[in-house]
Amino acid sequence: QVQLVESGGGSVQAGGSLRLSCAASGRNFPMGWFRQAPGKEREFVARIGTFGINTSYADSVKGRFTISRDNHKNTVYLQMNSLKPEDTAVYYCAAASAYSNFVNTVHSWGQGTQVTVSA
Questions:
Q1: Strand 10-13 relative to strand 113-118: parallel, antiparallel, unpaired?
Q2: Cα dist. 32→43, 51, 76, 101, 118 in Å?
């Protein structure tokens, strides 16, 4: 397991941007982001491979969100552009054992950071 600490959440108007950061301790793993809106289940948002070459996104954020990582800083980022009210959620950073089976091999979670997008 690794310790994950998110930062960068906040409130923004629709169309605005935010960048989330996730600082990790220990060795590098495939990393990603999930989110959970009130009354809904936690859902996958984006993932990135250990070396930052492979990425994938949920259809709902494709073209608007970009995941990246800086392994020298042990930090993963989620750049969120063209935000919509439906992006409002608590965003969680996650580390997994396998990029190819990311959702089912998550072993570490961050504490979550709130993102609120107003119309």
A1: parallel
A2: 11, 13, 8, 12, 25
What integer pLDDT is reported at residue 29 of this predicted model?
95
Please give the structure tokens belonging to residue 13.
């108007």
| Cα–Cα distance, 80 to 64 (Å, whole number) | 6
Give the whole-angstrom CA distance, residue 88 versus residue 73. 28
**pLDDT value of position 55:** 98
CA dihedral 1, 30, 32, 113 (to 10 degrees): 30
Backbone angles phi, psi at 87, to 5 degrees: -85, -5
